[in-house]
Amino acid sequence: MADMKTNRHILLHAVLVCFTVLALYPVFWVLALSFSGQQSVGLIDLPNDPSFFERFRAILPVPAHWSVSNFTEVWTEQSFGRWLWNSVIISLMTTVLGVFLACTAAYAFSRFRFPGRDTGMLMFLVSQMFPGTLMLIPLFIIIVKQLELGNTYIGLVIVYATTAIPFCVWMLKGYFDTIPYDIEESAIIDGASRLTIFWRIILPLAKPAIAITALFSFMTAWNEFILASVFMESEANYTAPVGLRFFVGGFSSQWGYFAAGSVIVSLPVVVLFLQLQKYLISGLTAGSVK
Amino acid sequence: MASILFEGLGKNYGETEVIKNLSFSVNDGEFMVFVGPSGCGKSTVLRMIAGLETISAGQLSIGDRVVNDVHPKDRDIAMVFQSYALYPHMNVYDNIAFGLKIRKLPEDDIRQRVKAAAELLGLDQLLERKPKALSGGQRQRVALGRAIVRNPSVFLFDEPLSNLDAELRVQMRAEISKLQRRLNTTTVYVTHDQVEAMTMGHRIAVMRPISGHNPLDTNLMQCGTPMDLYDRPDNIFVAHFIGTPNMNILPAMLSDDGTSIHLFDGQMPVSDEFRQAALAMRGRKVMLGIRPEHIGAAHEVDWPLTQTVQGKVEMLEPLGHEAILHFKVADHILVGRLHSHGRLPAIGDTVSMQLKCDAMHLFDPVTEQRLR
Ligand SMILES: Nc1ncnc2c1ncn2[C@@H]1O[C@H](COP(=O)(O)OP(=O)(O)O)[C@@H](O)[C@H]1O
Ligand SMILES: [Mg+2]
C-alpha cells in the first residue's frame, strides 16, 4: 500500500517537473541569451561534426561566456531607456484613469438602479468577446483620424483604458456587491455624504479588488504591442514592446539586446505581482469575504 | 429629547402596501418596542423614522418638526442595525468616532466623548481592535457606542440582539434597558421576540401585516404597556401573540340571557368586565380566550369560580418548577399548567382541569375585537 502511494507520488512529481521545465525553458533561454554578451539566437556554435555531449550542451540554456554587456549597451547605446520611460508613463496613466473610471462606474452599477443598468453591464461583457485586433481599424479611425491623437501618449492611454475598463468594472462591481449595504446606511445616518462614503468606506474596503484591477490595467498597457506599433509612428514615442521588436526587425537581428530588453521589461511586472500577491489571493476569493 | 408622532403613516412598494394608516406617538424619553411576526413591516417603519425609506403617505414628526423630507443626517437620530454594520476597516475608536469626525467636532471633544462612551460600555481596553477581532457581544457594544456617542434625541434599534446566543441576549437585554433608563433618550426598538418586548419596553406596539384592502386596515394592532397588552388584549391577534405559552382561544356560545357562556359541555358565568357586552351579544357565538396559567389542576389551585373540563393528555413539557400540559377536549387542544413536582399524568391519561372563570377574555368572532 505505502509503496504504491510513494510510486504514484514519484510519477506525479515527474510529470509535474516535466511540464514545469517545458514552461520555463524559453524563459531560461531568454535569460541565458541576455547574459551571453552576443547577438545570435543560439548560445553555442556547434562544430561540423558534433558529438552527443556537444549537442546536449547546445540545448542547455547556459551562455558560453557570462557578460552583462547586452544590458549596459541596451541601456546606453540604444534608445531603450526612452522607450521604457514611454511605457511607464503610458501604463501608469492607463492604470490611474482605468481604475478611477472603473471604481466610479462599478459603484454606480452596484448600488443604483437606473435605466440601462443591465444593458450597460451586458455591453461591457460583449465587448470582451472580440479580440483587440478586430478593433484596430475603428480605433485607428477614431483616435488617429478623428481625434488626431496618433503618436501621442493620450491616444494610447485612452485606447488602453477602454480595453481594460470592462473587466475592471465587472470585477469591482462583484466586489462592491459583497459589501453589505447596512454599512453605507449606517454611514449615512452618521452624517456622511455619498462621496465621503465612497472614499472613506467603500474604497478602503475594496482594496484587494482595486489592487487586481490596477494590476490588470497596468499589464494591459505594459504588454500591448499591436496597437502601440500602429499608433506610435516616431521612434522616440515607441513603447518598450514596440522598441524590442525594433532590435529584431527586418534589417537587424540583435537577439542579445532583445533578450536583455525583455528581461528589463518583465522585471516591474514580477515585482508588482510579488507586491500584490496577498491582495490577489483575497481579491480572487472575493465573495467569501465578510 | 424628542417625541415621535405618526399621523396616518403609509408605505408602499409599487402596488404592494406594506404600511398603512399608522397613527400613534412615542413619548419623550420613552422606550417603545415594535413587536410582530416577521414581515409585518417593523423594520420598514423604523427605517422611515431614520429616513432610509421614503414616506408614501401621512406625516412623521420628531420633536415638533415634520421630518418627511428631512435627510437622515439632519434628523438627530442614531440607529443600531441587526448586523451591527460596523466599519470593518476601522478600529473600535474610529468606528465610534466616525460620526463625530464627519460632523467636524474638535479633536479634543471627540476624544473625550469616545472615551466616556467606551467606559460606559466597558470597551476602554478594546479601542485599538478591529471589529474582526471582537466577540459578538463586544461588536454589539461598539454599535451601541457609535449610537450613544452622538447623544442623539432618538435611538433606533432593529433586532439588535438576534445575532447573539441566548445567554448573551439576556445580558444585553438588561444592559440596553439600563442604558436607556440612564440616558433617558427616546427609543424605538424593533423585535419579533415578545419576551424582549415585555421585558424591555415602557410601551409595546404590536404589529401585523396588513391583510385586506379595507381602507381602515392598519398594521398597528395595539399599543400599550406590557401589562395592558397582557391583561387586556384588544383583539385575538394580540391575545395570541403576547404571552408564552400562547393564550387558548376557543369558540363558545353566550346563553340567551347573556349571563353565562356555554363552553364544551359546561356553563360558566360571564365575568364582571364583560357583563354589558355579553348582554348585547346574547345568544350569539363568541371567542373565549384563557391563558394557560388560568387552567390548573383542582388540587393545586384555589380559585373561587371555576369550571371543570375533562380531556386526554396529548403532550407534557416539564420545566422543573412547573409543567405545561397539552390536553384534548372535544376537537380542541387546550394548554394548561401544573405546579406539582409529584406524579405527573402520562400521555393518554384522562385529566380533569379547572378554568378560572373571572380570567376569561371575550372576543367578537367576526371582527376579532375584544368585547366591550
Ligand atoms: N424594497 C422592497 N420592495 C418590495 N417589498 C419590500 C421591500 N422591502 C420590504 N418589503 C416588504 O415589506 C414587508 C415588510 O418588511 P420588513 O419591514 O422588513 O418586515 P419586518 O422587519 O417586520 O420583518 C415584507 O413583506 C417585505 O417583503
Ligand atoms: Mg426586520
Number of E-type strands of chain A = 0
Approximately how much beta-strand content do the residues of chain B carry?
25-35%
Structural class by secondary-structure content of chain B: alpha+beta
Please state the average pLDDT score of chain B: 92
Count of distinct structural domains of chain B: 2
What count of helical segments of chain A does DSSP give?
13
The name of the CATH superfamily of the largest domain in chain B reads P-loop containing nucleotide triphosphate hydrolases
Radius of gyration of chain A: 24 Å
Instruction: Considering residues with a beta carbon less than 8 A from a beta carbon on another chain, report the largest interface and each chain's count.
Output: A-B, 15 and 22 residues
Computed structural class of chain A:
mainly alpha
Identify the overall geometry of chain A: globular
| Strand proportion of chain A | under 5%
Look at the structure and name the CATH superfamily of the largest domain in chain A: MetI-like
Predict the CATH topology of the largest domain in chain A. Answer: MetI-like fold
Q: Over all CA atoms, what is the radius of gyration of chain B?
A: 25 Å
Unreliable runs of chain B, pLDDT <50, ≥5 residues?
none
Poorly predicted segments of chain A: 286-290
Supply the CATH class of the largest domain in chain B. Answer: Alpha Beta
